[in-house]
Amino acid sequence: MTRDAIRLRQVVRRFGSGDAAVTALHDLTLSFTAGTFTAVMGPSGSGKSTLLHCAAGLDRPTSGSVLLGETDLTALDETRLTLLRRDRIGFVFQSFNLLPTLTAEQNVALPLRLAGRRPSRGEVRAVLSRVGLSDRARHRPQELSGGQQQRVAIARAVISRPEVLFGDEPTGALDSSTGREVLRMLRTLVDDGGQTIVMVTHDPVAAAHADRVVFLADGRLHGTLDTPSASAVAARMTRMEATAC
Ligand SMILES: Nc1ncnc2c1ncn2[C@@H]1O[C@H](COP(=O)(O)OP(=O)(O)OP(=O)(O)O)[C@@H](O)[C@H]1O
Q: Domains of the chain, with CATH numbers?
């Protein structure tokens, strides 16, 4: 039986007011099944980052609701939303955002320490091992390649066992072969660990690692593609961009 990890219901996100108002998301209703990998694609300005930020509790919709499991994020005050993000959501960005003075294992342990827990070395090493970095635990970010830094950032995002891991172009700063390594690792987190992943990407090859692609255009859902191939995603994007011109 499938279960939804995240549900967006009639989400509207408007920025600004009057003549300068922009509606980034129009009445968007969409859900993400637990234990699956979804890529979000669409032309520039179509609302991908806004969708991700609203779904992850980093931004609030103007109207509509966002449910993480049974919790309505839009009903939470700032304190509860901060705690929910800390305990139930993981986020990785294009820039790895690691603390340069901390080693890989200290960076990975940080979210648990901030939550008042003292993680055991074994716990931290186990997560580093899941991302293939057991032998880099004592290295600082500057001593690691871009792909290794992103894997540390992913280990840091999943150490608290979040219900959903969000990625905003997590391979956007990596060369294609390093990016593919990171994508294969994300795939393994889904296949072996049951992780739910939602990732924004511009890259059809990256999207082909997902179970499903969700296409956005002008802040509206513009179809989905299951078990996508890179060529099918690229063809769909070309059609969407041609329509937008
Ligand atoms: N803080 C903001 N203030 C005003 N307008 C905003 C703000 N954030 C986003 N927008 C607008 O909302 C729309 C959607 O932006 P968003 O960043 O979600 O698109 P995107 O699909 O992620 O774009 P890209 O692929 O270029 O990163 C755009 O028209 C953008 O200019």
A: 4-244 (3.40.50.300)
